[in-house]
Specification:
single chain; ten-stranded mixed beta sheet; Rossmann fold; about 700 residues; Jelly Rolls; globular; alpha+beta
């Protein structure tokens, strides 16, 4: 799910700003002027059931249809994020490939952007993937194509690149998947670590899906039937609160043996999807796999946040040249994993650059890794050696409003975080002595806990942090765990109040060098709001420290070794398309970002508000968007929690102003989740259409 406005123009301008007549063939009558060396044509691509998908086809000049140039291999990006409004972003992105001997196709998924048909029933559906096979087959048979295709993309585009690699269409020869998850239940936006999550992306997408294609924005009965009146996706996902077939169908982690397409994975240490990179690097056995893991959030690595950026497209071209052109670029002789190892830095949300260093590793897991075990002790220290002999107990009162500093409602276990001390104040904190030497932790730290709760539903959160000599606390890694999933996330089982259970909680992938003189901090808590929905009952929990199977923290430590260093090119300068441009910059993520935390002592409640807005100009008009999401809960009645979102997009055309509005409310009581959503469409200030949905469904151990 896309995040950065200036870095992710397709996704922000389409999904957050929510905003061509196409010919029945590969060539349009009046294509836009993209400069001297690049040509674009529009096309319809018919699927097996006759629905036409809208495509923008980009060519190096002289290779477009009818120009007589030699056929080229084709790269595909396949998205629901509205190709027409993002032509400037795609010109910038694609130009690197076009100038190195590739054609590039950008295709709108069925029922989105300028494509025909009814909106797909949910993300990554069977329909979307069947259509993807049809698109690949069509591109492979065009006279300007060599018949060999690559596929690439970030987030959704990375997801469906992996999904198509699982289906192995004959013409698809290689994929590059950037910031994409392999586990759609545990690591995607809907349920994180098995816990309920409600964020801005999920809410605003149900308004974005209701937009017709640009630049004509045709409003007719077919539009209402196929888009505006289609049911929202959010409650569909939230009903699926258990792992199982709904999530397994397109989760690569469940289908690794099906992948036979050479796969290049690129991830970011500050992205919520990073775990997929080492897992797939280790788990895919029937296809070549390479990977890069940088210090980035959810963004293209050539325009990354934070720095250092790299020209990932150079590596992608080397990959595609090898598999689509048969050129020995040397990429297959290099080690399989380029890894950025972060060095300790202060806890800054606006950090410009992450200190650290690149190095090559042969793959994953790293052979020289060793496990260092640390034990929390009764005096709140954290130390190695033998576990505590006595089974000491530490008690913790549940504070549902705690945890804002560890992750807000925008991104999950990603993005830079502030100082963790305010959240740590509401957890059990264990801290090592100052380190006598630098210590590198790279991999998946694991916390083994012996816990109990006074309620049948409880969540546990574990965090690993770096404590500087001055006291600042930087988050290194963390994870959550729904206690009812202790035996299975497919068949949750209520906790027995007061009964001890053993939990093994694997934290999300990290790299970090703790410097000499710093301390290692380990924190156990029961709330991380608003990233995770609060469990419904006031309660207390216990943590048993010593005795049999003592609570412990296992750190994946990497001993120092001289390793070769990858050398990446700096980002290239990309072209700019005339007629497009930002009017208002919006937020850095492209989604609502937390700008107000209100704590009300008298009611022991907290309200977290995240907002965003922006504007954009196009050759045909302008658009403006706004969004606001408010999460509310209280320490005395956590069952009564809510997330309320308001979204709007206006498109201003000559003599015509269209405005779409969406009001969303998701809330809970002790036993039930409730959902209400209203879409509205106005033309020149007059209401054209309004439709509402109301649903309720059981909490089911959430």
């Amino acid at each position: 799910m896309p995040r950065i406005l200036s870095l992710l123009p397709a996704c922000f301008r389409a999904a957050a700003l929510l905003v061509c007549a196409l010919l029945a063939g590969p060539v349009a009558a009046a294509p836009p002027d993209l400069g001297e060396d690049i040509v674009m044509r529009e096309a319809w691509i018919s699927t097996r059931d006759g629905v036409r998908l809208a495509a923008d086809l980009y060519f190096p000049k002289g290779h477009e249809p009818g120009a007589g140039g030699a056929p080229l291999p084709v790269l595909l990006e396949y998205l629901p994020y509205r190709k027409t409004e993002d032509r400037d972003g795609r010109l910038a992105l694609f130009s690197y490939f076009l100038r190195r001997g590739y054609a590039v196709a950008r295709v709108d998924i069925r029922g989105t952007g300028n494509s025909e048909g009814r909106l797909v029933e949910y993300e990554y559906s069977e329909q979307e993937q069947r259509d993807g096979e049809d698109v690949i087959a069509w591109l492979a048979t065009q006279p300007w194509s060599t018949g060999k295709l690559g596929m690439f993309g970030l987030s959704w585009g990375g997801f469906n690149s992996l999904h198509m690699a699982m289906r192995n269409p004959p013409a698809l020869k290689a994929v590059v998947a950037i910031q994409a998850a392999d586990d759609l239940y545990e690591d995607d936006a809907h349920f994180i670590d098995g816990g309920m999550h409600v964020d801005s992306y999920e809410m605003q997408l149900d308004l974005a899906n209701a937009m017709p294609g640009a630049p004509d924005y045709r409003i007719d009965e077919a539009y209402f039937r196929d888009r505006f009146d289609t049911p929202p996706w959010l409650p569909l996902y939230k009903r699926q609160s258990r792992a199982g077939p709904f999530w397994d169908r397109t989760a690569p982690i469940r289908h690794l043996d099906d992948i036979r397409i050479p796969t290049f994975l690129i991830g970011g240490l500050l992205d919520g999807y990073r775990d997929s990179v080492p897992r797939m690097l280790a788990g895919v056995k029937n296809a070549p796999v390479k990977a890069i893991m940088g210090p980035w959030s959810h963004a293209w690595p050539n325009n990354s946040y934070p720095e250092p950026s790299i020209e990932w497209r150079h590596e992608a071209v080397r990959w595609f040249d090898h598999w689509l052109k048969g050129i020995d670029t040397g990429i297959m002789q290099e080690p399989r994993f380029a890894l950025y190892v972060r060095h300790s830095h202060p806890p800054l949300q606006d950090i410009a650059a992450v200190p650290g260093e690149w190095r090559w590793e042969e793959g994953w897991p790293i052979a020289r890794a060793r496990t260092q075990t640390l034990y929390p002790r009764a005096d709140r220290t954290l130390a190695g050696g033998k576990p505590p002999a006595r089974a000491g107990i530490h008690n913790l009162d549940y504070v549902p409003t705690a945890g804002v500093e560890a992750g807000g409602p925008v991104m999950w276990w990603g993005d830079p975080t502030p100082d963790q001390r305010p959240s740590d104040a509401f957890g059990l904190v264990y801290e090592s002595a100052p380190l006598e030497a630098d210590l590198e932790v790279t991999g998946f730290p694991v916390a083994h806990l012996n816990v109990s709760a006074s309620a049948p539903v409880a969540n546990w959160f574990v965090r690993l942090s770096d404590v500087a000599p001055g006291g600042a606390v930087s988050l290194v890694a963390g994870a959550g765990f729904n206690g009812t999933h202790r035996e299975s996330s497919r068949e949750p089982k209520a906790l027995v109040p007061g009964q001890e259970v053993a939990l093994g909680i694997e934290m999300h992938f990290t790299t970090w060098v703790f410097p000499k003189g710093h301390r290692i901090r380990f924190v156990v808590s029961n709330a991380q709001w608003p990233m995770f929905w609060p469990s419904p009952q006031a309660m207390s929990t216990t943590l048993r420290l010593g005795g049999k199977g003592a609570t412990r923290l296992d750190l994946p430590v990497i001993p120092h070794a001289e390793r070769p260093v990858p050398v990446f090119l700096p980002p290239a300068e990309d072209p700019v398309l005339a007629g497009f441009g930002a009017l208002e910059s919006g937020t850095s993520s492209g989604y609502g970002e937390v700008n107000l935390v209100e704590r009300l002592p008298l009611t022991r409640s907290t309200r977290v508000t995240a907002s965003a807005g922006g504007g954009y100009r196009y050759p045909w008009g302008t658009s403006h968007s706004s969004e606001r999401i408010v999460h509310e809960t209280s320490d005395t009645q956590p069952e009564n929690s809510s997330a309320t979102g308001t979204y709007a997009t206006s498109v201003e055309l000559p003599g015509r102003v269209l405005r779409w509005e969406g009001d969303v409310r998701f809330w809970s009581d002790a036993s039930t989740f409730h959902y209400r959503f209203t879409r509205r469409l106005f033309e020149n200030g007059s209401l054209l259409r309004e439709k509402s949905w109301d649903e309720s469904f059981p909490r089911d151990n959430q």
